[in-house]
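Hello Y.,

Per our agreement to keep a running log of every chain we model this quarter, I'm adding this entry. I've kept the format consistent with earlier entries: sequence first, then predicted structure.
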Amino acid sequence: MDRTRELALSVVPIDVELSLKNKPRRSFVLDDEVQPFGPSAVVRDMRVSASRWDHQVEKAYYDGDLKAAEAVTSLYGKGVLVSKIQRAFSVGAFGLKDNRRLVPTRWSITAVDSIVSKDMIGRIKTFPEVNEYRIYESRYLDNRFEVLMMPGAWSYEAMEAWYPGTVWNPSGTHVVMFSDWEGFEGRTTYADIGGCYYAARLAVGELLTKERRQAVVVVLRESHPGYIMPVGVWQVRENVRNAMRQEPLKYNTLEEALARVAGQFQIPLEQWVGRSRLLRDALFQRKITEYFRG
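Predicted structure for the entry above:
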């Protein structure tokens, strides 16, 4: 376990020599939550060369009184990469000394995305609202992302559409859609669409924190058949981060912004609206302030 932890926390490449108990199984694991894994076998012995840890991560590791969530947010605030924090979280490097445990990779990735973005949202809610409709866009590995920001108090929704022949719809004949959302008070249950929800939330949270603004945010994703090999949740986070780095398209009305989204997707806009809680509210729910206009 100590040697595994050294591998996970090192900031330099390490030479590793393995003795295996059996011949590696000819298997290849593909999953939309984690990176691809190849053949595996039971290890009899492992030797590793000298390693060097990130001093910020090392400090958190040796602090047995520092809670895991506090370690995560502190390291992120000091500029440690999310991927490094997730790897350390997975090997039980954080938390109260007697409560540390190994965490499955997919859980550690989502836990860190969730902890960091939740901490951001607490601050985002205190910022002024954006005053226009914005569209951010990104394309990668035959995934199309459109991120809509609307004036209003913080709320968030993530929507995905998977074409037949893709990871979550391999043998279907129709497009499959998933969605989850949260209002200003947040959510108390795990999102049905899984880690992608929290990965995208972190990415939009970073931009709003930087701009010191809050908004109603809807992340829409079309996954096309060219996405033949899932590479993990990081792809969603980095795709949305890439969208956030682009200059947004700005509109005066929601209808204009949605027309842009409709022009970039193959799925009709009506299907997205029918599946979305926040888009339906924005289009059809009247606000109490409308009744006070003279």
